[in-house]
TrEMBL record:
Organism: Amycolatopsis bullii
Family: Belongs to the MurCDEF family.
PANTHER family: UDP-N-ACETYLMURAMATE--L-ALANINE LIGASE, UDP-N-ACETYLMURAMATE--L-ALANINE LIGASE-RELATED
The protein, known as: UDP-N-acetylmuramate--L-alanine ligase
NCBIfam families in the cross-refs: murC (TIGR01082)
Mur ligase central domain sequence ranges: 117-296
Length: 462
């Protein structure tokens, strides 16, 4: 068992139920740490962590810190935790060290060969594909992912294989804490401008991330994405080894992609040898993610044949085109897409999965800043569907902005569109639009995920 960094031996995690924080807690518990934490409400993540021995509080209060039998060696927070949080304020007043989530994760990476998956889109899926394929090759990687694997239902694991696979989040620049030996950049497209300010600053943070690759390490980039390809060229000039994948690549050149309702097959030329990879999730963008994972796995010592078999066994990630159920002849899915490029790519894949049926999307914009900046792009992407229901903005960490609502997007959609600001009306509205053979997908990074079961219930009534 690897030694834990001293500051993580008694860690208190604020917002422990979140995807990133719960993963860190899971690994800490597996490595023998005393873990405590709090979250605003009870959740499946809290139930699981409590069963593993974590001391948890529902609700956040300064008294939670003093209620612990011993003071924490560190309090761990994410960017979402404000300085006014009572537990954070209590920790600072008591002189307890405060670590960002990324710093805690970097501490857990010590002693491993680290693979970090970055990019504006596709991070979670690519990280998950790599993890599942490495597990298939019996390399037992440790991993931390921003979503739950369908195979295990887990978002993190402490493995004994000496490899650590992690999703590297660029949204707040915290991935600059990591020092990977293998880095993947799937694409670079302006996002999270509420933090970075400008598209140029957003792109620059990826350049800084690449500079974190350890000597002798490898950068894997998608040659079909101009910004990622340019990042590869910059890295090569600095002496970093670079491998490219995609239709315009030379290292792993995609020759063909054949879609199917239950996924697709990508045919590629890998170092002069033709290889076919079956992917059980739809969309050419997912096939490209699989090729990125294949290159990363090979670099980490996995055999090509084993990686191909493992990628074929990948069953997806929760909230990434996740099947929620069927009512009559209508299928309902849920997806996390929340950027225009993601929405467009996923709807193209959904179109294939729908076959002769229509595509109905229930979309919830995420963040006022993103909605304001990309309203036209969202409208263009959503217009790929047959029926569009646009909800109001899920603000998350942001305060409402006057004049910024879902109507900004809905007013520019060219398909049949319905702007519905009343959340409780969305499920019956979507169910009423559906006809036999149609496919309904709820889409967005907020609480729109709750609507899938409600839509199925409404369909059952009919």
């Amino acid at each position: 068992m690897l030694e834990l960094p001293e500051e993580l031996r008694r860690a208190h995690l604020i917002g422990i139920g979140g995807a990133g924080m719960s993963g860190i807690a899971r690994i800490l518990l597996a490595r023998g740490a005393f873990v405590s934490g709090s979250d605003a409400k009870e959740s499946r993540a809290l139930l699981s962590l409590r069963a593993q021995g974590a001391e948890l509080f529902v609700g956040q209060a300064a008294a939670n810190i003093s209620a612990l039998s011993e003071p924490p060696s560190a309090v761990v927070v994410s960017t979402a935790i404000k300085e006014t949080n009572p537990e954070l304020a209590a920790a600072r007043a008591a002189g307890i060290p405060v670590l960002h989530r990324a710093q805690a994760l970097a501490g857990l990476m010590e002693g491993h060969r680290v693979a970090c998956i970055a990019g504006t889109h596709g991070k979670t899926s690519t990280t998950s594909m790599l993890t599942v394929a490495l597990q298939h090759c019996r390399l037992d990687p440790s991993f931390a992912i921003g979503g739950d694997l369908n195979e295990s239902g887990a978002n993190a694991h402490h493995g004994e294989g000496g490899v650590f696979v992690a999703e590297a989040d660029e949204s707040d620049g915290s991935f600059l804490t990591y020092s990977p030996s293998v880095a993947v950049v799937t694409n670079v497209e302006p996002d999270h401008l509420d933090h970075h300010g400008t598209a140029e600053a957003y792109t620059k943070v990826f350049t800084e991330f690449v500079s974190r690759i350890v000597p002798g390490g490898l950068l894997i980039v998608c040659a079909d994405d101009a910004a990622a390809d340019e990042l590869g060229s910059q890295a090569a000039e600095l002496g970093v080894r670079v491998r490219r994948y995609g239709r315009t690549a030379t290292d792993a050149r995609v020759l063909d992609y054949v879609p199917a309702p239950d996924g697709g097959v990508v045919r590629l030329e890998l170092d002069g040898t033709e290889v076919s990879v079956r992917v059980a999730v739809p969309g050419e963008h997912m096939a490209l993610n699989a090729v990125a994972a294949l290159l990363a796995g090979i670099e980490l010592g996995a055999p090509v044949e084993g990686m191909v078999e493992g990628l074929a066994a990948f069953g997806g990630v929760r909230r990434r085109f996740e099947f929620k159920g069927r009512a009559g002849d209508v299928r309902v899915y849920d997806d996390y897409a929340h950027h225009p490029t993601e929405v467009a790519a996923q709807l193209r894949a959904v179109r294939t999965a729908a076959g002769s049926g229509r595509v109905i999307v229930v979309f919830q914009p995420h963040l006022y800043s993103r909605t304001k900046t990309f309203s036209a792009e969202f409208a263009s992407a959503l217009s790929l569907a047959d029926e569009v229901v646009v909800l109001d903005v899920y603000g998350a960490r942001e305060e409402p902005e006057p004049g910024v609502t879902g109507a900004l997007i809905a007013d520019q959609v060219t398909a049949s569109v319905h702007y519905e600001p009343a959340f409780d009306v969305a499920a019956p509205l979507a169910a009423g639009l559906a006809k036999p053979g149609d496919l309904v997908v709820t889409m967005g990074a907020g609480d729109v995920t709750q609507l899938g079961p409600e839509i199925l219930a409404e369909l059952d009534k009919r």
